[in-house]
Amino acid sequence: MNALLSPVTKVKGIGAESSADLQSLHIETVRDLLEHFPYRYEDYRVRDLSQAEEGEKITVIGTIYGEPVVRFYGKKKSRISVKIVVDRVVVTANWFNRPFLKNQLQTGREIMVSGKFERSRLQLSVSEHHFMDAAKTKEKEGTIAPVYSTTASISVKQMRRWIRAALDQFGHDIREILPPYLLEKYRLMSREEAIRHIHFPASVEDGKQGRRRLAFEELLLFQLKMQAYHAVNRRSTDGTAMPIPMDKIREFVHSLPFPLTRAQRRVAGDILKDMQADYSMNRLLQGDVGSGKTVVAAIALYAAVCAGYQGALMVPTEILAEQHYATLKDLLTPFHVEIALLSGSATVRQRRDVLAQLQSGMLNIIVGTHALIQEDVYFANLGLVITDEQHRFGVEQRRILREKGLHPDVLFMTATPIPRTLAITAFGDMDVSTIDELPAGRKPVETYWVRHEMLERIFAFIRKEVDKGRQAYVICPLIEESEKLDVQNAIDVHAALNRYFTRAYQIGLMHGRLHPREKEEVMEGFNRGEIQVLVSTTVVEVGVNVPNASVMVIYDADRFGLAQLHQLRGRVGRGEEQSYCILIADPKSEVGRERMRIMTETNDGFEVAQRDLELRGPGDFFGTKQSGLPEFKLADVVQDYRMLEVARQEAAELVENEAFWEAEAYSGLRHYLKEDEFFAGKVRD
Ligand code: ADP
Ligand code: MG
């Protein structure tokens, strides 16, 4: 029995009541307590005064010199000052609201004081003090003291005492789980040392090394789990090995109105290879907006159909479903593929018919929203599932999908370029194919950032483009708290544009409150060019493809994430003409202004994503909790990205190594894997 798994009450000083308090911090076992790491330190080490910087918090030892002076302000406020000689320098130490100290501050007494030091005036605001002649030296003095997150009923001091007691009693039970070669290669402390040092470092460097070891372990374990999923999946032969007739695929590719880019060929090759193999494909297809992912999806779907299987394409919105359905129909109907749309606006009867055809195998391909997987939809022979906008999917949803009946090949597409550090964290268990090239001849979209007062000129600019036969999108602010306000905004802007254009052109209005039927009509009108200007909330965000549109105006652009702005911008620049993106924003903060500048400086989605990540951190990057990003205790995927790369590399090598799955030396790591039920029965002790 592992002693670290004992309840925390085994630690001296922790009783039933304290343990109940600790439970609210998710601390139940000794191990939980030892792994409750400090989030920062207080530095109480005695310093040389000459090294202190202006305003820095320092700890010094000195001798009291002269009488303390107390001053009262109003009823309760007071300040007591006394001179202290430190290294032959006279410093004035000040305490606030502690007049009772007067009798203790006797001249000649030695005292240690910590506080903020004002170098220019030789003043110190004391936050803590200790008389050197006092009997008991408090534990934190002269040290770097850890600061922990606690609850109202647990003080940081108490937490320090408990953790120290836990280390004294159980420190020697902490076992190493990393293999020795990794410790050596990266000069890492042992697990026990690291845990001791992260809590009570002897020096700043010590604490850093402790943290480094433990953060590495955290990243390695996470990557190991991801890579092990991948390896176990690759080894299992429960996938469908599709016999794909390559000549038919080539014929289809030749029928396309354009040659594929080199990147499209390469990723299509990756995908077809996975489909032909007897493991289930688990692949992420990423590429910047407009890089041509839809055609690649069409090739994969056609391949599945030629091999005798059915395919499903799932997308996040109805509009996108319509759009993909239309595209696929154009491309695939000439090749005798039966394809249907499972739409929210279908009648009960239409829906029943589609489902029956799907179950009988008459239908080859179905397109719908993500609700497709949750509902009672049965397939005759599902071989391939493609889902678009994958980042809205967590790890769990991915599993549900795999567990639904057969073991189809799964391809996830994302139009949001994901910085590599996040991609290997959120999607570390998947293979990744990237389309890193745009079709030839695309003109980069020109992006401008303007203030609200320029509205008249923006309208005039829209008119100029529309006069030339182009079309424009006008996207209205996103106010997350209230869909109603969003809609009202769009309605107001629509009215303003109608007044401006005095009905010379058709101004369409699109928002989430419209009936699916109405949305469809507006979209069709815009597709056919009967509507010249489309005012919309963000429902057009993803995937809409109208190559004649050349202007994208975005109101209150600073309310959007950069990835989303880039998505919206990607709706234009799809045709021959020069296109424009106009961001209307008056950001209040410097970060806000920097974000607008980034958009005007680059058209590269991966660069936008990387800079956004650096600016806002990983939590905000995906914008939702459903990002599939794990929460690390110590590691920071942005700051520790180098370590993340190394951990990923090492994890990949580990799972490739037969010894990892068998040898005693790796049982600590395997044990960790087995805490996840997916691996129970698949991994030995
Ligand atoms: P996204 O990757 O954003 O989903 P799409 O698949 O919608 O991009 O493609 C954007 C546009 O580019 C479409 O109009 C599509 O027909 C066109 N396209 C795709 N591949 C090529 C290519 N190799 N050459 C020229 N145009 C292409
Ligand atoms: Mg797309």
How would you concisely characterize the structure shown here?
With 685 residues, the chain is an alpha/beta fold.
Question: What are the salient characteristics of this protein?
Answer:
alpha/beta, binds magnesium ion, binds adenosine-5'-diphosphate, 685 residues, single chain, 20 strands, seven-stranded parallel β-sheet
What does this structure look like?
With 685 residues, the chain is of the alpha/beta class. Helices cover 40% and strands 19% of the residues. The chain contains 24 helices and 20 strands. The strands form four sheets. A seven-stranded parallel sheet has the order 10-11-9-12-13-8-14, sandwiched between helices. Strands 15-20-19-16-18-17 form a six-stranded parallel sheet, sandwiched between helices. Helix 8 runs parallel beside helix 9. The two termini are 15 Å apart. 40% of the residues are buried. Magnesium ion (MG) is lined by residues 293-294, 415, 543.
Topology:
Blueprint: H1 16-23, H2 30-34, E1 40-43, E2 57-73, E3 77-86, E4 89-96, E5 110-118, E6 123-131, E7 144-147, H3 156-170, H4 180-185, H5 191-199, H6 204-235, H7 246-255, H8 262-276, E8 282-287, H9 293-306, E9 310-315, H10 318-332, E10 339-342, H11 348-360, E11 365-369, H12 371-374, E12 382-388, H13 395-403, E13 409-414, H14 420-426, E14 431-435, E15 446-450, H15 455-467, E16 471-475, H16 483-501, E17 507-510, H17 516-527, E18 533-536, E19 549-554, H18 562-569, E20 580-584, H19 590-601, H20 605-616, H21 618-621, H22 641-656, H23 658-662, H24 667-674
Parallel strand pairs: 4-6, 8-13, 8-14, 9-11, 9-12, 10-11, 12-13, 15-20, 16-18, 16-19, 17-18, 19-20
Antiparallel strand pairs: 1-7, 2-3, 2-5, 3-4, 5-6
Helix pairs in contact: 5-6, 6-22, 7-9, 8-9, 9-10, 19-20
